[in-house]
Amino acid sequence: MTANPALKNAGYFDALSAADYLDSRYAAGSPEQVIDGALKYFGRRFALVSSFGSESAVLLHIASKVSKDIPVLFLDTGKLFGETKRYRDELTEQFGLTDVRSISPDANDLTKHDPKGSLWTQNTNKCCFYRKVRPLNDVLDGFEGWASGRKRFQGGVRSLLPHFEASDGRVKVNPLALWTKDDVQAYIEDHDLPRHPLVEQGFASIGCMPCTDRISEGESERAGRWRGQTKTECGIHLSVAENSKVLSSL
Fold it and tell me: How far apart are CA 151 and CA 175, in angstroms?
């Protein structure tokens, strides 16, 4: 595929036009076609962001079939389950991923805003901001497009996800947006993918240890995230304006 030349003249990048251009070609495409199209368009300025959580193996496995060299950005917040880090290492080796990058919070930010490591008990949004949002934004400065494993069936603001969307001057790519829960489970079984070890213990959506809980039968898979709070999304999936609004209101 040849990229629309109007988008790349003199180093200029128009994320909205790029998202529209890509979505016009891959709106009904398979996850593999979506990733392949994004990689052809962005080249080395495209990355995949993965939590190495409960269903992360699916997107990582599909991406590895397209290219094992796609940069994979992993946010090591300092509050993760040890099982998640070991799962990261297992999938990296099994899928042959060659460019998995662990991203850590800025030490100065933690010293200033979370010196005791307990900010999550007072303000989960600020904790997310300093441990996830800011570190990821700093790393994404080198990329024009990035993909994650969000899906429509997860509900909330994700229920209308397209394959490509523009946000903060970049294109966010959602290769699994149209997949159902059954599609995900079938792919895991068909390819005999290793499961996150915490899934068998009742964890369905796995993030930072303090803000992740088991779910009960009949609950949505994200019910265990920030339980008892109105918060439903990690800050990395909010725009800069949305993050600023959340932080300024606290």
Answer: 8
- Please report, for the domain that includes residue 164, its CATH number: 3.40.50.620
Q: Is 218 helix (H, G, I), strand (E, B) or coil?
A: coil
Continuous H helices in 171-249? 181-190, 240-248
CA dist 248 and 242 (Å) reads 10
Q: Which of 127, 208, 211, 234 is catalytic?
A: 234
Active site residue 234: yes
| Tokens of residue 73, six digits | 């950005």
Q: How many domains does the chain have?
A: 1
Structure token digits, residue 250: 């606290």
Tell me the C-alpha distance between 141 and 161, whole Å.
23
pLDDT tens digits for range 20-30: 999 999 999 99
CA-CA-CA-CA dihedral for 197, 146, 61, 1, to nearest 10: 170
Strands (E), 130-188: 145-147, 164-167, 170-173
Range of the domain at 112: 5-248
Q: Which two tokens stand for residue 146?
A: 């990035």
128: number of Cβ within 10 Å: 27
pLDDT tens-place string over residues 209-248: 999 999 888 888 778 888 888 777 777 776 666 666 656 6
